Amino acid sequence: MNKNSVAVATLLVAGMASMAFADDPKKKADGKDQPKTVAKGDKAKAIVKGEKPKASPGWVIIEEDWSYPFLDDFSTALHNARRHYREKEEKSASAEIDKAIAWLGYAQERAEKSTAEDLSTVRLDLMDYSAALKSGKPVLARKLDNAFAHASVVLAKWHHFKSSKALDESDLKTAGRHLMAAADLLRNAAQSANFEYGTAAYDIYDNYAPYGYWDDEVVLVKGKLEANLSTIKGELEKLTAKLKKG
Which of 25, 97, 173, 178 is the least crowded, having the fewest Cβ atoms under 10 Å away? Predict the structure, then answer.
């Protein structure tokens, strides 16, 4: 097999339409560049050189040894879980929470120690709620929303760190993607916690995702990225304080 082939890993759950990747794998569907997989049971493992994410809910190899996940799947999963919960579809809500749990596991494996511990805490919390919904046990809506808010804030902080690190390395595109994800998670966390905040997070998200998803044509400026990171950090600190008060 050609080791330089472009490989695309399947999502943990089929049907996720939300994708945030820079290249379209379908464009490489002809010739030797076609993605190649080896099936095992109902799943398929991508053959790639280098590190393969162990717990990624969805990932794409665009070039050899380079990958990044679908950055908005976490918030989408929690949105769907909340919708299913309202419609009394507990098992479907549990399945969506499980997607979010996989995301937290992905981030936890790649986080600094203190952040990894925070990610583990909210991950275990969501696992408890998922199990309760799956078994038919009653779950209070306010407690579920609170768990979603905590998880979103912790993951937003991880994305903020990743964005800062990428910016230090002058990788503006990666910094922009992670900043977009942090802004998206901040919005979702605030909504879950019924927390009022300014329009800054909305504006920042729209700057990097003008069509509701990452746009490779967006113009990236280091100074603007730094200012946006500072704004998101401040908003996350306010929301964290709000959540600690209950």
Answer: 173
Residues whose CB falls within 8 Å of the CB of residue 109, separated by 6 or more in sequence, listed in order: 53, 54, 55, 116
Torsional sign, CA 50, 55, 61, 66: negative
Q: What string of DSSP letters covers 180-203? A: HHHHHHHHHHHHHTT----SHHHH
Residue 167 to residues 108, 132, 179, 213, Cα–Cα distance (Å): 21, 41, 10, 20
CA distances from 127 to 98, 102, 134, 162 (A): 7, 10, 10, 25
Report the sign of the C-alpha dihedral through residues 182, 21, 109, 106, in that order.
positive
What is the spatial distance between Cα 207 and Cα 86, in angstroms, rounded to a whole number?
A: 32
Question: Is residue 94 a contact partner of residue 133, using CB atoms and an 8 Å limit?
Answer: yes
Round to whole Å and give the CA distance between 65 and 139.
43
102-126 mean pLDDT: 94
pLDDT of residue 202: 81
Residues 6+ apart with CB under 8 A from 105: 55, 123
pLDDT tens-digit map of 158-171: 999 999 999 999 99
